[in-house]
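Notebook, bench 3.
Goal today: get a predicted structure for PadR family transcriptional regulator from Streptomyces phaeochromogenes so we can plan the truncation constructs. The sequence was checked against the plasmid map this morning, with no discrepancies at the termini. Length recorded as 191 residues. Pasting the sequence as submitted so the record is complete.
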Amino acid sequence: MSIRHGLLALLERGPRYGSRLRTEFEARTGSTWPLNIGQVYTTLGRLERDGLVVQQGADEAGHVLYALTDEGRAELRSWFTRPVERTNLPRDELAIKLAMAVGAPGADIRATVETQRRYLSEAMHTYTRLRAQALAEGPGHRDEVARLLVLEHLVFRAEAEMRWLDHCEARLLRLAEAAATDPPQPPTPSA
């Protein structure tokens, strides 16, 4: 998730101070990616250093306001038109866990898969309930539509992971069946 670009997008609506940006970011993403206020101010500092935002006075409460520069607006437009590349993928703990469990003596891969499946089932139930609530409220405001899109992304991602777990389980079952029917290998002669 590009916090940098998310903040630029929020600043396009007008000057904002850090904690307001944090609140709006979390509202827009359905509170699924909470931000630390320190993260917000560190990112604002970098954006300012890079000439993408400037400090623009303070509000009545004394909060320093940040505004988008022309360079910031150009960077935001460029970000919106670029594809999100999936070449530098973050490590996925579940994929690593299953890959390591395959060769680990004493690892119960089926139990690992089933534990993850139960977790995903509960998560999907939560995401689906939140999505139903958002739909029932009739998303009319762009923040509500944005929240709905994020919730739907989480539902689809959980569904995809469930399908992958089904695939893993089927592959492991075929592997176990093949190992059970393979004739035993003769011992290697000693030299």
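The chain has a mean pLDDT of 87. Helices lie at 3-11, 18-28, 37-49, 70-81, 93-103, 109-136, 142-181.
Flagging this for group meeting.
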